[in-house]
Design goal:
Layout lengths: L18 H4 L7 E7 L16 H4 L12 H16 L6 E8 L7 H15 L1 E11 L6 H9 L4 E7 L3 H7 L7 H11 L4 E8 L6 H14 L3 E6 L7 H7 L8 H17 L3 E4 L2 E3 L7 H7 L3 E5 L4 E4 L2 E5 L3 H9 L5 E6 L2 H12 L6 E2 L5 H12 L5 H5 L2 E2 L3 H5 L1 H9 L1
Parallel strand pairs: 1-2, 1-9, 2-3, 3-4, 4-5, 5-6
Antiparallel strand pairs: 6-8, 7-8, 10-11, 11-12, 13-14
Helix pairs in contact: 3-4, 4-5, 5-7, 7-8, 8-10, 14-17
Length: about 400
Amino acid sequence: MPSALPDGEPVPDDGALPAHALAGAAERPLGFYLHVPYCATRCGYCDFNTYTATELRGTGGVLASRDNYADTLIDEVRLARKVLGDDPRPVRTVFVGGGTPTLLAADDLVRMLGAIRDEFGLADDAEITTEANPESVDPRYLETLRTGGFNRISFGMQSARQHVLKVLDRTHTPGRPEACVAEARAVGFEHVNLDLIYGTPGESDDDWRASLDAALGAGPDHVSAYALIVEEGTQLARRIRRGEVPMTDDDVHADRYLIADEVLSGAGFDWYEVSNWATSAAGRCLHNELYWRGADWWGAGPGAHSHVGGVRWWNVKHPGAYAGALAAGRSPGAGRELLSEEDRRVERILLELRLREGCPLSLLRVEGLAAAGRALSEGLLESGPYGEGRAVLTLRGRLLADAVVRDLVD
């Protein structure tokens, strides 16, 4: 969750949505994202809306404390129930992200999930995920989560090499994420993801292959691999600017992506989104698919974004301001926008083109169709799906996904 918030129109104090946003809601899946904004330390590359204890000291008092954070977030879940009214949908997915959700007590995460169950109900096959820092969990913690209803967990591995982790300011030790996968499996977690980052300054091809091999050896059924993005204002950006560490380039990122796809595909993983691979359809992250397919989700927590029926809104960033709004009986929303049909068309192209199933050519206008034809002739789109009316990226197309999207959006 990037730290910068867009502009937008005000959100009503009661959080009420326009009537058209709820029209036809029963036909759309509903998910919840729960943001936990706390971290023990700040990673040098991180631009997310997160806070260490030092950064919060004196800025929010008791309202910003993680000790009572679960109660505050539950207040927003209850607000969601009021705003969505008699919406009959059971929640299809819940994703707890951060920050480091596992800095909270496991019982707190279970209580947050329980509030969603109590207010909305959960689908029989609901996917319930939390992110976790490898150093902040142990078997007892994981067992509490599993017993409490969580069935999917995502560990931040990033790399298997100590010198790479050091550049990223990651505090876990190599080997710990792999051990976490075994511990999660032992207590009954059905689905386990490992997050990897490639392109860190000082990382070699051999380092990247070692990280992939270590991840696969742990036995997850899902792997996410992201190119390192150096965000302005981060410690890593400052170090690169001072010449302390080198900056990797797009060619290096492309080479690493090709290695990832080769290694993961060879191990039985299939890509289903440009940066995500799973061993089966059941192993995919259904919650992220809600985002990519424009479904409805409520984001609870400081800075969290939500989308319901073409209305998108976002909460105030600071934990103290967030808690203060809820304590006063107000929505913590900082702003919102009503998406036009054209906005939604463009977003469908932007997001669906990144998926294995691609996007319908019927979404494209004349200029976009011409661009799609050029992309096909250049080997960026698969010919079979194209003939069936869909734009699906080839491997080369995935390397140039952002450029292809720009052309197709016209």
